[in-house]
Every structure is written in structure tokens, then in C-alpha cells.
């Protein structure tokens, strides 16, 4: 600092040292323009490199997320095995001799509809009858059902099938 190579500034109890810029040569206007041009060319080069780097990283990510050849071969083998199992199952179903004829199926479906309809009708009748009895009954519906011994569909978590 005494020789003038660096400068010293005191800020309270602290001292800051920095290079004396008066001794450095000043750049001419032409040098400054050439340095600015070099900065611009290098900035564009950096941007181009960053863009290519991003593209390569995206390509690497795609390659890492895709299956390798061995994994793909194993997957194809498993799928073919699964497909063969389905073909075999289909053949067994086609060859089965215990098929239900459409007439029998229709008969069973119509009987189910009839029974479900009767179930709903009887349940509605029983509910109306019990509601009529409960109008003059002093205790709760639950207590009445327990005394008489009535079990409802809800007690057994049963509901009639939905109408088709």
C-alpha cells in the first residue's frame, strides 16, 4: 500500500485493500469494441452449447426411461405366454359341452325377474302392514320388531337385485 501497488480504505475498524487501477493501462476504443464483439460471440456459443446440452439431456432421459433390448425381449416372451394361456382357455370354453341354450337362459332370467318382482311386492305389503300396526304402538319400531321376532332384509344386509 505504501508503494502504491494496492490501495487501502478504512471503513470504521475495518480496512479494505484493492488493486490500484490507475497503474493499469487504459484500453482504447477499438480494443473495447473487439472485446465486446468477443463477448457476444462467446455468449452465443455458450447459448448454443447449453441448448445442445439440454437436447442431449432430454434424449438421455428418454433412453433411460425406455426398456432395454433384454427387458423388451423378456416382456414379449411373457406376453406371448399369457396370450397362449388365453387361447388355450378360449379353446376349452369353445369345446365345452355343457353350454346353456338361449331358451334355458331366457327361462331362468324371466323366473328371476318374476321372483324379484314378487319379493318387492311382498316386502312393500309387509312394510305397509307393519306401519299400520306401529301407528298405535307406544314403543319404537325396533323394539316392536324384537318383541315379535321380525327380521328384515337390512338386518341381513340383503337387497333385491336391480331391475333390468
Automatic annotation (TrEMBL):
GO terms for molecular function: double-stranded DNA binding; recombinase activator activity. One of its GO terms (biological process) is homologous chromosome pairing at meiosis. This is HOP2 protein. Keywords: Coiled coil, DNA recombination, Meiosis, Nucleus. It comes from Geococcyx californianus. Residues 100-156 form the Leucine zipper with capping helix domain. The keyword Plastid does not apply. InterPro entries: LZ3wCH, WH-like_DNA-bd_sf. Residues 46-96 form a coiled coil. The gene is Psmc3ip. Its main location: nucleus. It is found in: Nucleus. GO terms for cellular component: condensed nuclear chromosome; DNA recombinase auxiliary factor complex. Pfam families: LZ3wCH.
Amino acid at each position: 500500500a505504501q508503494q502504491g501497488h494496492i490501495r487501502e480504505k478504512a471503513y470504521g475498524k475495518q480496512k479494505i485493500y484493492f488493486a490500484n487501477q490507475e497503474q493499469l493501462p487504459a484500453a482504447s476504443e477499438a480494443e473495447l469494441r473487439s472485446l465486446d464483439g468477443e463477448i457476444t460471440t462467446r455468449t452465443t456459443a455458450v447459448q448454443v452449447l447449453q441448448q445442445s446440452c439440454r437436447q442431449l439431456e432430454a434424449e438421455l432421459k428418454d433412453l433411460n426411461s425406455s426398456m432395454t433390448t433384454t427387458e423388451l425381449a423378456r416382456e414379449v416372451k411373457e406376453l406371448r405366454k399369457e396370450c397362449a394361456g388365453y387361447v388355450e382357455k378360449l379353446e376349452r370354453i369353445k369345446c365345452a359341452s355343457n353350454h346353456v341354450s338361449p331358451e334355458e337362459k331366457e327361462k331362468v332370467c324371466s323366473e328371476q325377474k318374476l321372483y324379484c318382482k314378487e319379493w318387492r311386492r311382498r316386502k312393500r305389503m309387509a312394510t305397509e302392514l307393519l306401519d299400520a300396526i306401529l301407528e298405535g304402538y307406544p314403543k319404537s319400531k325396533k323394539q316392536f320388531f324384537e318383541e315379535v321376532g321380525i327380521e328384515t332384509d337390512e338386518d341381513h344386509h340383503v337387497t333385491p337385485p336391480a331391475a333390468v
